[in-house]
Each structure stands twice: as C-alpha cells, then as structure tokens.
Amino acid sequence: MTINDILREKVAGVWAGTYTVLQPDGTVLERFDSRQEGRMEGTAWTERVTYLREGEDPYEHWYSATVDGDEVAFRNTNMWGETSRVGAEAVIFSFGRHERPDERIIEERRVPGALAVEWDPSAAGV
Asked: What are phi and psi of 5, to 5 degrees?
C-alpha cells in the first residue's frame, strides 16, 4: 500500500478531530478542534483544513500535493517538506512554511483503527 493508496482509500473524506501541538520535549502547547476535507483525484491530493481555536474565528487553509505512489511533491508555494509512509497504517508529514524558517512541523496521519502510542524517552531515563 502506497501513500497514494492510504490517502485515497483511508484518509479521503470529511473528518473532525483534535490537533495537539507539542514542544519537542512533549509539553502540550495547545489543543484545538479541526475539520478536514481531503480528496484524491488521480495523483492530485487536495485538503481543506478548518482550524477551530476556542475564542477565535475559524481559520481555513488549503493544502495540495502531487502524490505518485510514495512520491509526494507539495504544490503550496508557501510550504516545503517531505512525506513518509509507515507500513499501511500511517503517513508522516514533515514540513514547514517559508515565512517561519525556524519552525518544522511533524504531523502524523493514522488510518482509522490504528493505535497511537507516544513514548517519552526522558521518562524512561534515556
């Protein structure tokens, strides 16, 4: 199963969820709701995300990419990044925005039913 397959068969559609933004050390910075609408047409992935932060107006952002098998090329001119597949269960997006060059965002997109575990090496004395 390729990234294209995962997005087309398991991620495309309308989703409501919660973003949890973490510092590199695992400290929670913020949590907020979102609504995501994703669509794959051939190799063209389009996604509209509406960020729903409490006390703020909804903020909408469009993302687009060409996804050919496991090869992903972002089509947003304000973004850079790469994408990796983890088996048939998850896709990891590692990206940033040109206007904030010191920031790197790592986003995990799991398919329904996949288990997520966060491991904190500092808690294990590592």
From this structure: -60, -45
